[in-house]
Write a structure and sequence with these properties.
Layout: H1 11-16, H2 19-29, H3 38-63, H4 79-95, H5 100-119, H6 125-149, E1 155-160, E2 163-168
Antiparallel strand pairs: 1-2
Helix pairs in contact: 2-3, 2-4, 3-4, 3-6, 4-5, 4-6, 5-6
């Protein structure tokens, strides 16, 4: 297996992976026309993150694949690729009708994060490919389920003091 290499900081990757998800909320806050209203957008986007991160966590702690640099056994799947591609897919679902460049930009950034993980020896190519696929699929399933059970006019989100209230009328 060889000796473990010195771990290189992932600080930039740790920020870049969340840019697509953050962009969903930033574009909505800036008044860009989205597919869904605020409550459904917030609920579905948060749910997609939970489903994606949960799937990644379970797989990382079940498969125990060595990283290429042998720093640990949590290489498969790439969590950075999972989150970046899930966020890109969320951005695509909510804003692709505004401009195809929103989707192209989001997926380009997600791809750059995934490629960087391989180049810096943190993941194998199949780790990032699986992460990308799982992120896209988990988000697609989340939006599909959301569209089947939640209508825009049936979700209410309220902020009162130090808590958030969510009401869903089925």
């Amino acid at each position: 297996m060889g000796q473990a290499q010195e771990h290189r900081s992932d600080a930039l990757d740790d920020v870049l992976e969340y840019i697509p998800y953050a962009s969903v909320f930033a574009l909505k806050a800036c008044g860009v026309s989205s597919r869904d209203d605020w409550p459904k957008l917030a609920l579905t986007t948060a749910a997609s993150w939970v489903v994606t991160a949960g799937a990644g966590y379970v797989l990382k702690h079940s498969i125990h694949e060595w990283r290429p640099d042998h720093s640990d056994r949590k290489s498969f799947p790439s969590g950075h690729a999972l989150i970046a591609f899930a966020g890109a897919t969320a951005l695509h679902y909510e804003f692709h009708h505004v401009s195809p460049w929103i989707s192209v930009s989001a997926y380009t950034l997600a791809t750059a994060v995934a490629v960087d993980r391989v180049v810096r020896d943190r993941h194998h190519w199949y780790d990032v490919a699986a992460g990308a696929g799982i992120g896209v699929c988990a988000t697609a399933v989340t939006w599909w389920v959301s569209d089947r059970i939640i209508k825009n006019d049936r979700v209410q989100l309220g902020f009162t003091g130090n808590r958030v209230d969510l009401a869903i009328r089925l």
